[in-house]
Amino acid sequence: MTKTKPRLVTFGISHYCEKARWALDWHGIDYEEVSWAPGLHQILAKRCGAEGTALPILLLDESIIQGSDKIIDWADKNTPHKDRTLTHSDSRTIERRADDAMSVHIRRLSFARMLPQSAHLVKPAFLQHTTVPHRLAGSMMWPVAVRVMMRAYDVTTQASAESRDRLNVELDWVESMLSDGRRYLAGNSFSRADIAVATPLAHIARPAEHGRFYPMPLNETLRDDYALWLDRPAISWVRDLYRTRKSMLEPVAA
Prior knowledge:
CATH topology of the largest domain: Glutathione S-transferase Yfyf (Class Pi), Chain A, domain 2
Distance between the termini: 27 Å
Radius of gyration: 18 Å
Number of domains: 2
Helix content: 55-70%
């Protein structure tokens, strides 16, 4: 464990950051969360020695850990609750698919619907937890950040339909695992697989227990997209997981 409190660098709106946050909370690891503004984060990430600019980043005494999967690995090794590992069974395999497909297309659909017409609704969700100087810098850089995000996440005229179709496939996949009545996706206990699937789907489920991107208003087109899935078993499972597993500092009975 580090001598000083680890610092978790996030975008408040990011489900990858929520994934890292949940893992640290689950293990009872004390940390400080700081949020960086989009655009400015590229400069700050390079300054602290990160290999890339993606968040989350965990800043330790003499090193940094970048990426939600690696932060979970670190938390599993440094937990004060050694019996609460998040890695077992086929949890990594499920996590990789959730990160590489479901998470990518949730983000792409959201950006395709929101950024071209409603970027003003997205901006506060990125900036609400930043410091005043970061908020001012982020506001100045916001028009450029929007263009960069649209290009980086392939926001084209076909993006919404393509990502909707892929998300239907991913929801079918989750529900095929849940169809045998299991409570957790990998084995008999809560794992990184559950976190990796629940955090992107929380954009749709919008559980009350989620304290970060839940308040972001949705425009009508994205709200209509999400409405197609609100009654699906996978979304009900996400709401239940947040309700029963989001307060993680004390062990929770299975």
